[in-house]
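Last lecture ended with a question: if I hand you only a sequence, what can you say about the shape of the protein? Today we answer it with a concrete record. The protein is Iron-containing alcohol dehydrogenase. Below, first the input exactly as provided, then the predicted structure, then a couple of comments.
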Amino acid sequence: MNNFEYYNPTKIIFGKDTYDQIPARIKDATAGNRIMITYGGGSIKKNGVYDSVMESLKDYEVVEFSGIEANPEYDTLMKAVEQIKENPVDFVLAIGGGSVIDGTKFIVSAAKYDGNPWDVLTMKEGCKFEYAIPFGTVLTLPATGSEMNSGAVISNSRLKEKRTMGGPQGFPKFSFLDPTVVKTLPKKQIANGIVDAYMHTLEQYMTYPSDNLLQERIAEGILSTLIEVGPKVMDNPADYKAASNLMWCATMALNGTLRAGVAYDWATHMIGHELTALHGIDHARTLAIIAPNLYKVKFENKKEKLIQYGQRIFGLEGSCGEEAIHRTKTFFESLGVQTKLSDYTDDYKSTPKTIRKRFEERGWEALGERKDLTPSEAEKIIEMSF
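The predicted structure:
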């Protein structure tokens, strides 16, 4: 088992009929009375979440910032940052899925940063977020786990860039998880959420055997549960039991538990982020496109874990690594998620070369759990994905 530090201060309030507890949780975080709520395109006003949250905030002065995109845009978020700098708030409450929560992490951090926030996202030397306005979340879409971690991914469509950020200041003070919201979601979003949670788990599992047996078993428990409940939620989003398990799986997949003491990959995510930046493909779908082909290219690296995965998750026997890859792809497709890049773009020539060049320019010469996935291999993986 590798050495590790584990820290997660986020309080989770899980279940239905809990929004009346929001004021008490805010009071735990601040003595102030001025609250900003952040959200996306307005679906929360259709599914009743907005009204319920606003009722709970009736004793507060509330300002709103809406329009955070599915891939939160730097320029949009900077408008909220400027709004806060002109009229400070004491607390921010994000109401939405991972994109709204990610965007809010940037807003609360950038509002406390004196320099150029883009320098932090591009990892310019000496630039980092250290402080943030306290914030909490009301989750409306199980997928990214952003409600219980400190990381975020921010897009800049002007530059066709997608960048990550993190740090201790990015942990929500609390997060409300109400599985009843799942019944209001489009099936495409539910499918994306299932794939996202599944791939977050695989990125921390599909590496090489370790002696951290507990983390491996927890990961396998999440994967098995997603395979069991995912189709049930797709068939009946109002199935509270299935939706509850999906929501908690998505949170557990990326709250820091799985990465404790183990090697992790994330190369699929790094390639996937570029596909979103270049072509606007949903994040989860980029992962479903790239992962099977990355596992083929790095098969020898991952062979032992692929066999373990195939045997424990799919009940296969013997040297079943290749079949395990096929079963993974089939599971994604069973959710209605296309797994070929050609289903999303016909840019066969420039996409692989552009991403390889970007990796080279950033010095990303050694990705993956063994630090040996090269830009040329990334190019090959993308070519195989069409």
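Comments.
1. Residues 186-385 form a domain with the Dehydroquinate synthase-like, alpha domain fold (CATH 1.20.1090.10).
2. The chain has a mean pLDDT of 96.
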